[in-house]
Amino acid sequence: MFNNKREREEAEVGGAGMADIAFLLLIFFLLVTTIDVDTGIGLQLPPAPEENQEPPPIKERNLLNILVNAQGMILIDEEPTPVSALKQKIKDFVTNRGQDPNLSDSPDKAIVSIKTQRQTPYKTYIDMLDEVMGAYAELRNQASQSEFGVPYEELEDDSEEQQKIQDIYPKKISIAEPSEG
């Protein structure tokens, strides 16, 4: 009589409410989670030209041609150049102010033309573009320091001071369509 143990039923969790809870958690996490989106390379495009508008004439000396070929070599005016020397060459080209007849007349006339080939290594292209942007950033920073005593990055966006520095060193970069070979 005492050894008679009644077997207990195992406890069960009701499954009906589980689907509701899972659905609510799913909605909660969808609303709360932020998803980082790769934005790509941030470049501001110039306004589209009118249909019958001819491109303005450009003196050859005001055009710095950069080619990144399929082997990943960077050529400035058909001369091989390492990535490390690119920034200084661009700064020399832009700040020439007519002294060297092989370089630009002035910063506002200097144009950096970039061309690639379809098989150009992406990393080399990005490294080259970083050097180009870095050269302009350094020039603008130096001008801001001398004009206003503060780095260019600390100037307020769309302020008169920032516009003045952009007028001194306008970023004129032409990126051509990649060629096949």
UniProtKB/TrEMBL annotation:
Signal peptide: none annotated. It is found in: Cell membrane. It is a single-pass membrane protein; Single-pass type II membrane protein. GO terms for cellular component: plasma membrane. It comes from the Bacteria. GO terms for biological process: protein transport. The keyword Electron transport does not apply. GO terms for molecular function: transmembrane transporter activity. The chain crosses the membrane at residues 12-32. Residues 148-181 are annotated as: Disordered. Keywords: Cell membrane, Membrane, Protein transport, Transmembrane, Transmembrane helix, Transport. Belongs to the ExbD/TolR family. This is Biopolymer transport protein ExbD.
